[in-house]
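hiii so my PI (J.) wants the whole complex modelled not just the main chain, which honestly fair. so below is everything: two entries, each one labled with what it is. i double checked the lines twice but i was tired so who knows lol
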Amino acid sequence: MALHSLDIARFSWRALSGYPARTLLMLLAMAIGVGSVVVLTALGEGARGYVTGEFASLGTNLVIVFPGRSETGGVNPGAMFNETPRDLTIDDALSLTRSARVRRVAPLNVGSVTVSRGPRSRDVVMLGSTAEMLEIRRWEVRQGNFLPTMDIDRPMPVAVIGSKIRDELFGPERALGEWLRVGDRRFRVIGIMGSEGRSIGVDVEESIIIPVAAAQQLLNTQSLFRILVEARSHEDIAYVRQFAENTIQARHQGEKDVTVVTQDAVLSTFDDILGALTLAVTGIAAVSLAVAGILIMNVMLVAVSERTAEIGLLKALGATPGQIQLLIVAEASLLSILGALIGLALGLAGAMGIRSALPDLPAFAPSWVILLVLFTALITGLLFSLLPARNAAALEPVSALARR
Amino acid sequence: MRELATTAMIELSHIDRHFQVGDQLVKALDDVSLHIDRGEYISIMGPSGSGKSTLLNLLGLLDQPTAGTYFLDEVDVTSLDDGQQAHLRNKAIGFVFQMFHLVPRLTAAENVELPLVLAGVPVEERKRLIEPSLEALGIAERAHHKPDQLSGGQRQRVAIARATVMQPGVLLADEPTGNLDHKSGEDVIAILEGLVDQGITLIMVTHDMDMGRRATRQLRMMDGRLDQDLRTSNHGPS
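here's the output for the full assembly
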């Protein structure tokens, strides 16, 4: 004797719709479990996507050189006398251009200076660099030009200013071609940065960018803060990293006194951290799925005892223990699948809500989560209905029918 | 089917059904032997606790004997497993209960359909079987009503339709008129007797003496034993 699957579905549906309040509450429990998994993973993935995007905006295939060796063990004799053993210089930066696998090199100096024009002045972040910086960091110039290509050690008095600084110092007046005072020197404004040029650490809108040699004069230093090196391709990153390390070491009398990191390494660290965070959050949400599963078991146990007479009747009409189990399991599965689908819809809607509230956050639940959640819901329904189903199948028809 | 009337349908020998209640052994059935032929019309009477319902449940494979053998259609049913017994209940036995036991969320037609669903009968054939069955019992126009929209008599007719739709050889009725008013009870009995005329074996438990005396064979039970086995020539109002 085989039950038709359509009959099973119809019977289960009738059983569920016969107790609407209970069914709705169960659907709600399952939907909340599934929905929260979907929303939380979307949020985690969104955060990861956001951070990854921010790093990508720093420029891709980037190798960063900075002075000092971050390593433990052993005493670096130089460290006893100087802050850093040997400065990074403009010549160091130039030496790094001598490889076919290096596309661009940009030195970077950072300092805080006072910028003024007439009576107005404010403190800003000053970046000293070269024309290469624009491409390396994927910045955009809104008006005028970026730093011109020229000899790297020439302290040309030109400045590219952020749009906010432009507004504050010049107001409605024309800024391009005008002079302003940076520290104790005068610079001519040759360009204004676009507002998109925002990346981790530096807000370009509130910065001023001048040639690196001019920055060194202003800061009264010979050293650089960083050297940014862009490899030709992703495959060249490892080579360029090694090349930078070796070149600087050779120039510094064999001392390994710089640290070279790749953007990739930083990115993948963040990726790992945020990925772990997403998993942790998913795990927490999964607890609510388990709770929903236990609720389903509870409800099915109650359903079995409520419907003892009905189960007894089905037995009297010739239902085998297997058929009884099948009907109970089907009912629980239908319940959990419906709940999961509702939860999925709610979760996807929630993720959509997050995306429209925070457009920067690409909050999409990954497809593997959606599949996993549906699968888990189904397994939960099956697993937690086995006990009630077994109870139902084991009922003695006589005692079952005797209850009213 | 009259020509089969002498074939043994049910053969109980030395059946015991004992319950352990606390430290007391209750002998609900005590050494019951019974031979029932095909097409018989039997009433089982007796005071409550005499074992008549236990006997009926045992005949319907809803309960297992503690000792003894039970042959149904020459098959030793006590040796069958749960699945095989379920199969027999589906095909060979029909039940009518005092409480009707209709599934409240299913319509009359769907209730009648249940045994066919359990048997895996194809949908088109189910229709072919259900309609005449409801028709014969005069409830065709109530087919799509839920039990709570039906009168007691109509509910019991639905239950009878459900019990007979698989065309079983034996129909077991436990106080089928117990929850009905006199008129509806008379109707239901008439229907059941009509089924006997068509050849079904009817075994009915009742405590209504008048109703019991209409049967062609009247069994009386007392303390788990068959106390009296009385045969009359023809059924009908006495």
